[in-house]
Design a protein that fits this description.
α3 packs parallel to α5, α5 packs parallel to α7 and α7 packs antiparallel against α8. The longest helix is centred in the C-terminal third of the chain and has 35 residues. The protein is built from eight helices and no strands. Helix content is about 80%, strand content about 0%. The protein is mainly alpha-helical. It is flat and about 55 Å long.
Length: about 160
């Protein structure tokens, strides 16, 4: 059934078990050849394993062709293009990802990298400042959540 192999692949992907995840995503594509999420995850796996960026780009292009608004696939496609020194080509995907997820620090880091490589120093600096601000906010939010969990645990100890 469509979706079954994707769910299993996603479970493997979430714990960085790349080979079994890829096997499941490929099985999903045999059932559903238009699974843009499976193409995206296969491309992401190649990038995470520091594999051939062209191989990742091929998978990500298929994903974006089916689901042009899949922000994660567009961000990963930009990552692949950056690894291939195709900085200008990466900008449309990065701009789209920044518009869709303005609070994602990773997108701003990638934008800074692209701008710096294109010699656009002022834009690179602005993106790095935004990246730093967003990263700091994310760390503070994580720390606050951890503090809340600890307080809840202290106030409600598990039964003995």
């Amino acid at each position: 059934r469509p979706g079954t192999h994707f769910k299993l692949g996603n479970a493997y992907w979430s714990i960085s078990q790349w080979d079994p995840a890829a096997k499941e995503f490929n099985a999903e594509l045999a059932n559903d050849p238009r699974s843009c999420m499976s193409f995206y995850k296969l491309g992401d796996i190649v990038l995470e394993q520091h594999g051939d960026p062209q191989a990742a780009l091929d998978q990500l292009n298929k994903s974006v062709a089916i689901c042009p608004n899949l922000t994660e696939a567009r961000e990963d496609r930009a990552r692949a293009l950056l690894r291939m020194d195709r900085y200008q080509d990466a900008l449309p995907d990065l701009d789209a990802a920044a518009h869709a997820t303005p609070d994602d620090p990773n997108v701003h880091f990638l934008l800074a990298q692209a701008y710096r490589s294109l010699g656009r120093a002022d834009e690179a600096k602005a993106e790095m400042q935004l990246f730093s601000k967003l990263e700091e906010s994310a760390r503070a939010a994580t720390a606050a959540r951890a503090q809340q969990v600890m307080q809840n645990r202290d106030q409600n100890p598990p039964p003995q």
